[in-house]
Q: What sequence folds into this?
């Protein structure tokens, strides 16, 4: 992502977040549509044009959200968990561990996004044909429809990490049976697509095409994302040669189940927001405590016992000492840590720093 993301709501148990880069996109879209609506052939008043531009921008953002919700809905239908959806400058990202399953699941979860954009675009164009609408409103809705269709076409370009690149990866993955090889291939195709887009953008700028700047910027973003995907593939290949036991550090200290959440925050949680702490009672580990689960309960009553805020093992990343590090990294997602358990006892933890330390020592060999 580009910067800080804010949680703006929750749909079907899925957190909806908006990246700070969306502010730039919102300003750009509202301004460009305001200029378009107040110019020929629509040529409507400045105030009405601004209201129409804001309304069209809201509908467009809703369309992007529908695209991501389609991904999330299909992931849920395939039995995959979905933690959140983040909307950013060039679209959105749905957090679901589809890579842990197989090429068929990745294809199905991915392809519904562009199909949803096509459907939304078709509905908008159909609505724009209704005779009861004013020419200005009809033109705005028709433009939204065409923009959604353009979004669908752009998304299916075979450049990773676009939807088209993921569809290409799922096909290569199915043919070769090798996810890393498929990812590397799709990412390199993405680099090629990005270079073409940047070249077209520069050519448009040279021929006084103002939208060439936008095209080149999108190409640059795709280039960086594709290169990152290539590097991530190389890191995953290295991680596959290690185990959780080799990289783990000392486990987080145990917290007594009857300790107050206020005391647990002061003694253990503060400064360790991404760690998972075992909660122990009479019979050993009863569950786990995270900063988020403690905050959720403690914000209402900080004197309640830790036991009231703990989460079960199913809701944290629990791995065995023998688990391959690339799979541990998948379980950790974009952050946090994994708990290493042996015979019901927490024997260690794996954090992003632990993975980095292991990679550094592995590369030095």
A:
């Amino acid at each position: 992502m580009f910067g800080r993301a804010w949680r703006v709501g929750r749909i079907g148990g899925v957190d909806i977040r908006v990246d700070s880069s969306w502010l730039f996109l919102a300003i750009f879209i509202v301004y460009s549509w305001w200029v378009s609506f107040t110019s020929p052939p629509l040529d409507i008043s400045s105030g009405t044009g601004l209201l129409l531009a804001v309304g069209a921008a809201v509908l467009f953002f809703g369309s992007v959200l529908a695209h991501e919700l389609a991904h999330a809905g299909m992931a849920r239908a395939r039995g995959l968990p979905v933690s959140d959806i983040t909307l950013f400058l060039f679209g959105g990202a749905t957090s679901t561990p589809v890579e842990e399953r197989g090429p068929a699941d990745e294809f199905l979860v991915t392809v519904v996004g562009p199909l949803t954009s096509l459907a939304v675009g078709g509905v908008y164009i159909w609505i724009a044909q209704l005779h009861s609408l004013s020419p200005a409103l009809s033109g705005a809705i028709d433009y939204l429809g065409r923009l959604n269709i353009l979004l669908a076409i752009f998304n299916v370009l075979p450049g990773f990490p676009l939807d088209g690149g993921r569809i290409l990866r799922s096909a290569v993955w199915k043919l070769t049976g090798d996810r890393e090889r498929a990812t590397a291939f799709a990412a390199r195709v993405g680099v090629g697509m990005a270079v073409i887009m940047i070249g077209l953008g520069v050519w448009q700028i040279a021929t006084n095409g103002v939208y060439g700047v936008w095209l080149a910027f999108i190409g640059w973003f795709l280039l960086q994302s594709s290169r990152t995907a290539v590097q991530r593939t190389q890191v995953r290949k290295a991680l596959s040669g290690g185990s959780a036991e080799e990289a783990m550090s000392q486990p987080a200290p145990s917290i007594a189940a009857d300790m107050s959440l206020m005391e647990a925050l002061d003694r253990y949680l503060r400064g360790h927001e991404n760690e998972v702490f075992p909660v122990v009672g009479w019979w050993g580990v009863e569950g786990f405590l995270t900063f988020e689960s403690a905050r959720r309960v403690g914000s209402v009553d900080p004197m309640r016992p830790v036991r009231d805020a703990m989460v079960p093992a199913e809701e944290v990343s629990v791995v065995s000492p023998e688990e391959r590090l690339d799979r541990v990294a998948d379980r950790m997602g974009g952050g946090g840590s994994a708990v290493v358990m042996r015979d019901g006892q927490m024997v260690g933890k794996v954090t992003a720093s632990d993975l980095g330390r292991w990679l550094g020592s592995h590369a030095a060999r």
In short: The first strand starts at residue 5 and ends at 11. The mean pLDDT is 85. DSSP finds twelve helices and ten strands in the chain.
